[in-house]
Design a protein that fits this description.
Elements lengths: L2 H19 L3 H11 L3 E3 L23 H6 L2 E9 L14 H11 L2 E3 L9 E8 L1 H6 L3 H8 L1 E5 L25 H12 L3 E3 L5 H14 L3 E3 L16 H9 L3 E4 L14 H15 L4 E3 L19 H10 L4 H16 L8
Parallel strand pairs: 1-2, 2-4, 3-4, 4-5, 5-6, 6-7, 7-8, 8-9
């Protein structure tokens, strides 16, 4: 064998060795996508796990960027409160700056990124600070400039924008307050997306009407169907269809109490929820808002982001078409977060 042929042979052997043993995180993500489906998750609570892992590599063990890569996750919506504690901040950035700093330091995320990439995870931001928006409604535009794509209006209890689905205040359940209508209109005027997770049904109806006029989608980032899990914070069939009319999304979740109240949740419960949401709202209006790092699980057989391929296989086995699995896992969220055309109704 000539020296040239020998050198070429050794190059081929080294390439095979490297491909088998020197696997990077992007390569792991590519393998996960090949056996599953690329994923965008509408609910990953890094803001709430920064104290455990400022590097974002492992988080709580559910969805650090190592687990995200193994599960084929290509995009995440990250909620953050304006304040993490009772101490006021000037300006009121709260967890915003620590979160942005952590995302930049990790070198694994690109914020507000709508160019498909095989090496980085796209990250979009959601402001969870209805009280802040009441105090300073004009801050909507400022938060949009800072990168907030989605704005949550509800909280666990009634607030100055809206009544909550689980509100315990005395008196009748109502919809948006006057301040709430003003803030929602401001959000829509800057092209923002309103998240109605946790809002009362009357409030959801009002937000839907305002969004239809603005021709913008409404989303419930982490809500399930009340017909399968009877919890007030889950959505009625009427609300599911109303959100769909805007071209919006319902993010199926594994958050505590919303997947199987009073029972031990399993992967099967997640599959049943997604199938029901697809049947009622349509496959073009269902996404994933699992709740990793911010209250998801424990769900047997679906414990972290690495299990997304397992969920995809279970959905196919349950009869969901591969094209609809792709929509639920990725395409619908990409369309809404990146301002794509509305689906045909």
């Amino acid at each position: 064998m000539s020296e040239r042929a020998t050198r070429a042979r050794w190059h081929r052997l080294f390439a095979l060795f490297a491909s088998g043993f020197l696997c990077s995180a992007p390569a792991a993500a590519e393998r996960a996508r090949a056996e599953g489906v690329p994923v965008i998750d509408l609910r990953v609570g890094f803001s709430y796990s920064l104290g455990r892992d400022p590097s974002l590599a492992t988080g709580s063990g559910q969805a650090g960027y190592v687990e995200l890569a193994k599960g084929g996750v290509v995009g995440v919506l990250l909620p953050f409160p304006a304040h993490l504690d009772e101490r006021p901040a000037e300006p009121p950035l709260g967890s915003y700056l620590p979160l942005r700093a952590a995302l930049a330091a990790s070198q694994r995320f690109t914020v507000d990124h709508c160019q498909r990439s095989t090496t980085e995870i796209s990250a979009w931001l959601e402001l969870e600070a209805p009280d802040e928006l009441v105090r300073e409604p004009t801050a909507v535009g400022l938060w949009a400039e800072r990168g907030a794509r989605v704005f949550a209006i509800a909280s666990e209890h009634d607030n100055e924008l809206t009544t909550a689905a689980t509100g315990f205040a005395p008196g009748p359940v109502t919809g948006l307050t006057r301040a709430g209508r003003d803030v929602v209109s401001r959000i829509l005027s800057v092209g923002g997306i309103v998240d109605v997770s946790g809002a009362s049904e009357l409030s959801i109806d009002e937000v839907v009407q305002l969004a239809l006029k603005a021709k913008l989608p409404v989303i419930a980032t982490h809500s399930n169907a009340r017909a399968l899990a009877d919890q007030p914070r889950n959505l009625s069939d009427a609300s599911l269809r109303a959100i769909a009319r805007t071209g919006g999304l319902i993010g199926a979740t594994a958050a505590h109490g919303l997947i199987a109240p009073g029972r031990s949740a399993t992967l099967e419960h997640v599959v049943r929820q997604i199938l029901y949401l697809v049947r009622v709202a349509g496959a073009e209006h269902v996404a994933l808002g699992i709740g990793f790092e911010s209250g998801a699980g424990p769900v047997r057989d679906f414990e972290s982001a690495r299990d997304f391929p397992r969920l995809a296989r279970a959905l196919r086995a349950a009869g969901l078409r591969s094209v609809d699995v792709q929509r639920v896992f990725h395409d619908n969220a990409w369309r809404v977060l990146c301002g794509g055309p509305r689906p045909r109704e």
